[in-house]
Write a structure and sequence with these properties.
The longest helix has 15 residues, at about 60-70. This protein has a 10-stranded antiparallel β-sheet with strand order 9-8-10-11-12-7-13-14-16-15. The chain folds into 2 domains: about 1-115, Alpha-Beta Plaits (2-Layer Sandwich), CATH 3.30.70; about 125-389, no CATH class. The chain has helices at about 25-40, 60-70, 95-110, 125, 165-180, 205-210, 255-260, 265-270, 295-300, 320-325, 350-355, 360, 370-380, and strands at about 1-5, 20-25, 45-50, 80, 85-90, 115, 135-140, 185-190, 195-200, 215-225, 230-240, 245-250, 275-280, 315-320, 330-340, 340-345. By secondary structure, it is α+β, with helices and mostly antiparallel strands. The protein is about 30% helix and about 25% strand. α2 crosses α3 (about 95-110). The chain is elongated. The termini are far apart.
Length: about 400
């Protein structure tokens, strides 16, 4: 542990002399820097925990640290708010001690008491590949302008196309982070270069700053401990081109229908801004509309979304016009969740979302084909026919 102790240099009689200390937890900072190097994205990422985060003006601390980082390096760096302080992110830097010295020295000179530390990277790559399919929200926000351009720039290089109204984007980011905060653990963002740390407080700033650097998607996720011994809890929100979003959850020891019910919150909170939302089983590693049967064709035909759905689901969001097109939903639970959005749910969610036998799932025998056929009859012409795509 490294501790800096300084004395306020202002000796006027109106000012009380005081000691200031900056505590450096070197082990966690060094471990995170080493883990980032192993991912192929070298950098230094450290937390500045302000001792008096309510009384200290965070923006003034941010100005002090920005000036300090600008003075020692010409490369990029960023500061993001977090609960109780700031994250300092210096991509490409391999010498973590240099960053610590610059930050600690600036804080000492400014008379700020703080602790510098870092949380470990989330071990998503070990955790997720072992997990079976899980209930997942597939949603898409209303576009601010009609879908026209492919997600590439003039040179054919992939370029992120979000295309959602800024006010809706703000609500979408805040809602996603609030949902992720239900996990008792750390959050990270992937998809815009190096892994980025965040929490519910600073997450909106991280997400907004990252959309300009995203390639094909942004993934905000959280991993922590569940309520029982040895139980893990994971949530992720994927933001993709043209307002597409998926929300997935893995909760050890919890039955899948309960997980499906937990996914209602991200749907109902933003229902009025969603063109589509349904809960299907999917691999939690990287769920996307393109992974669904006829999904790649469907996402290019937004002109059909107001009048059709891709397929039936145990939980699905419909507009009033779509509801009117359905044949007979008497066997379903129908709940109004906004002015023009209705949540249509099966009365037996276990039949749709219970953890399937891997063989039955692989052969297309779950959900039960007869039940799916009956559901398609209930939805009638609302379900798009593949030849229409």
């Amino acid at each position: 542990m490294r501790v800096f102790v300084g004395v306020c240099r202002n000796s006027s009689p109106e000012t009380t002399m005081y000691l200031v200390s900056v505590t450096v937890e070197a082990g966690p900072i060094r471990a995170r820097a080493a883990a980032l190097r192993r991912t192929g994205s070298a950098g230094v990422q450290l937390q500045v925990h302000l001792e008096d985060h309510r009384g200290t003006e965070v923006s003034s601390v941010e100005d002090v640290l920005t000036a300090a980082l600008d003075s020692y390096r010409t490369g990029a760096h960023a500061l993001y708010p977090m609960a109780g302080g700031l994250w300092v992110v210096v991509p490409g830097e391999t010498k973590w001690k240099v960053v610590v010295d610059a930050v600690a020295g600036a804080l000492e000179d400014a008379g700020v008491t703080a602790t510098l530390s870092a949380s470990p990277l989330l071990d998503i790559d070990t955790f997720l590949p072992q997990k079976p399919v899980t209930p997942t929200v597939f949603g898409a926000f209303t576009m601010a302008s009609p879908l026209a351009d492919l997600p590439v720039n003039a040179h054919g290089v992939p370029e992120f196309r979000w295309g959602v109204d800024p006010a809706v984007t703000d609500r979408a980011f805040s809602s996603a982070l609030d949902w992720l905060a239900g996990v008792d653990g750390e959050m990270e963002l992937r998809g815009a270069g190096p892994l980025l740390p965040m929490d519910a407080v600073g997450g909106p700033a991280v997400l907004h700053a990252s959309t300009g650097y995203a390639d094909q998607w942004l993934v905000a996720h959280a991993l922590g401990q569940g309520p029982g011994q040895g139980q893990e809890h994971y949530r992720a929100v994927h933001f993709a081109h043209w307002g597409q979003v998926t929300c997935t959850e893995v909760a050890s020891g919890r039955q899948a229908p309960r997980t499906a019910e937990s996914l209602l919150k991200p749907i109902t909170e933003l229902a009025s801004s969603l063109d589509a939302a349904a809960v299907w089983l999917a691999n939690p590693l990287f769920p996307s509309w393109s992974s669904l049967l006829h999904g790649p064709q469907w996402i290019l035909r937004r002109d059909l979304w107001a009048s059709h759905v891709l397929d039936v689901a145990g939980i699905q969001l419909l507009s009033s016009d779509q509801l009117d097109r359905a044949s007979d939903l008497a066997a379903w639970s129908v709940e109004r969740v906004s002015d023009d959005r209705w949540l249509v749910s099966a009365k037996d969610l276990r039949a749709w979302y219970d953890a399937p036998d891997p063989v039955a799932w692989g052969q297309g025998r779950f959900p039960e084909p007869a039940m799916v056929a009956a559901a398609r009859a209930d939805f009638g012409e609302l379900v798009i026919q593949p030849e229409a795509l």
